[in-house]
Amino acid sequence: MKILETTNLAKTYRTPFRRKKVEALRGVSFEVGKGEVFGFLGPNGAGKTTTIRCLMGLCTITSGSAIILGQPVPSREARQRVGFLPEQPYFYDYLTVTELLDLGGRLFGLGAAERARRGGELAEKVGLGHARNLPLKKFSKGMLQRAGLAMALVNDPELVVLDEPMSGLDPVGRKEVRDLILELRDAGKTVFFSSHILSDVEQVSDRVAIVVGGTIRDVGRPRELVGASRLATEVVLHLGGDEAANAAAREAIALRADKVRGVEGEVLAVLGAGADVDDFLAFARGHGGKVVSVTPRHETLEDLFLRRVEAGKTERRAETVAS
Amino acid sequence: MMGRIWAIALNTFREAARIRVLYGILVLVVGANLLAIVLGEMSIHEQARVARDIGLASISFVGSMTAIFLGVFLLYGEVQRRTIYSIVTRPIARWEFVCGKYLGMVLVLTVLAALFSVAMVALLAWQGVGLTAALGKAVLLAWFEVVTVAAIAVFFSSFSSPFLSGIFALALFVIGRVTPDLRSAAATADAAWIRTVARGTLEIVPDLHLFAISGRAVDGQTVSVHGDFVAWSYVASAAGHGLLWIGALLILACVIFQRRDFV
Predict the structure, then answer these.
(1) What average pLDDT does chain A have?
(2) Tell me: the pLDDT tens digits for A297-315?
(3) Maximum distance among all alpha carbons in chain A?
(4) What pLDDT is recorded for position A20?
(5) Which of B87, B91, B261 is opposite residue A60, by nearest beta carbon?
(6) Average pLDDT of chain B?
């Protein structure tokens, strides 16, 4: 079942006076299924936040369409069932967490008892139970992010949209957000989040989309996207001979490997994708090397991401030249 | 719907209270009353007249200036601080948000008018002067003027910066107060273009003079809060004028706000 679907979503801004067109989105299409954690990956300025703003009704859509929970965007009915955390959330800093969550609950039409119960539960859940009566202006960036997460969950949403939820958090905070995302998935929620932190996306996403230059470059499961093919094999060898013997062995190994690095008796040999690893290991042992480790290196999401970003830059340069 | 509008209104009122706007108003109330006492003592047996004049002028002028100051930041500030992202992405229509913000500001301005009124009545009681219906009508008219000025400021705030909104709103406040002069110019000015401009201006500016008529002529008779004042039917008619302008300005503000991209 599709929870979120965009078809050729496009957004063009016009600068106020020169009326110059800025194409922020150029036909973004993807789907998010029920119960999925969907990572929306892209470099700064790729169109992640614009896509989310269009989905949440903060911006009008220039062309194309978006459907959330069966309702065309913008739809108040859909927003009733969606939780949203904006990028770098800004709240009324004179409010306390309790008051902020109460305001959120009122906007969703929750009764007073329900608002109090949800507010208390959520403040504890995001680790702000101790600070629930402090004004937000006294909060650190990480605490504000947690307050924003609590606000996003106040209506017990079916779909949670998080714009850069790990931004500005320390490693502990990032792990807590990742855990929270997984917890939401376990509770049957659908999570759509944007990030440019690859490791975070890779760790929690069932599927990802890579957006560069306002267009989707890839959509799929991270493992499917990067493929199973081996890019290289890294072999660490220990050479136990004297200085002259080690230098000779190192020289011989260098002839059979793509790259060799290391000092004194420890050598790292990098073999190409098509290399015969067994043959190389036998050769290395024959020259007095002891195998410490053998690590196949596959393409990572980072490799794919960087390749797409580079391709995007090339396209943009070509467009600039053409125009 | 009302629950959401009320939630926004309550939050707007809370903001004014937390950023010490109400304390500022309290200081002005005390200042106005001290001025009324001093000027009253300087006058000859006219303490009550001075107290009433300063009290009503304070509600009208301080109220209108507060309305402009708060109003020009009301919507612009929400967009600029990006606090609006956390609000309009909830199941609330943008027009509900605009109305809620305006209602919250009306609450603040009502507290302001109430504080000034209570202080004025207390001063009059201290001088041994009782309450009159005329004073009640004058306070009500001043309050309608203030909330109309607030709607003007909110309208400009829906698309303009606080600085420009402030200038526009202040200009409309001043022009709205001199509508009798404009009417006179529209009828008797020698130059045709002056008559045209005056007539055009009268069409697009709320007649704020309707709310401050003490000491002026109404239907050929001079009315005064210290003596013969207008009837309740006049108050209702002026209130109707104000409400129509408030409605029109808020509808325009809602339409403009509805079309805005928040980036």
Answers:
(1) 87
(2) 887 778 888 888 888 878 7
(3) 82
(4) 78
(5) B261
(6) 88
ipTM: 0.80
Question: Model confidence at A18, in pLDDT bands (50, 70, 90)?
Answer: low
Residue in B closest to A92 by C-alpha = B83
Distances (CA, A) of A77 to B103, B117, B250: 25, 45, 25
B93 touches chain A (CB under 8 A): yes
Nearest CB to B90: which of A59, A90, A107? A107
- For A230-298, the fitting CATH number among 3.40.630.30, 3.30.70.100, 3.40.1190.20, 2.40.30.10 is 3.30.70.100
C-beta separation of B207 from B220 below 8 A = no
Run of H or E including A197: none
Domain boundaries, chain A: 2-221, 230-298
Q: Do B15 and A108 touch (CB under 8 A)?
A: no
Percent of chain B with pLDDT over 70: 100
Instruction: Identify the H or E element spanning A315.
Output: helix A301-322
DSSP one-letter code for A135: B
CB within 8 Å: A79 and B91: yes
CA distance B48 to chain A (A): 41
First to last CA, chain B: 26
Chain B: closest CA distance from residue A66 (Å): 15
Mean pLDDT of A30-42: 92
CB contact under 8 A, A94 and B18: yes
- Do A53 and B262 lie within an 8 Å CB cutoff? yes
What's the pTM? 0.84
Residue B175 binned pLDDT confidence (cut-offs 50, 70, 90): very high
What pLDDT does B125 receive? 84
Superfamily of domain A2-221: P-loop containing nucleotide triphosphate hydrolases (3.40.50.300)
pLDDT tens sequence across B130-164: 788 888 999 999 999 999 999 999 999 999 999 99
Q: CA–CA distance from A43 to each of A165, A302, A305 (Å)? A: 15, 11, 9
Neighbours of B4 (CB within 10 A): 21
Q: Which residues does chain A have within 8 Å of residue B86's beta carbon, measured at their own beta carbons?
A: 84, 86, 89-91, 104, 148, 151
Residues 194-233 of B with CB under 8 A from A: none
Cβ distance of B91 and A95 shorter than 8 Å: no
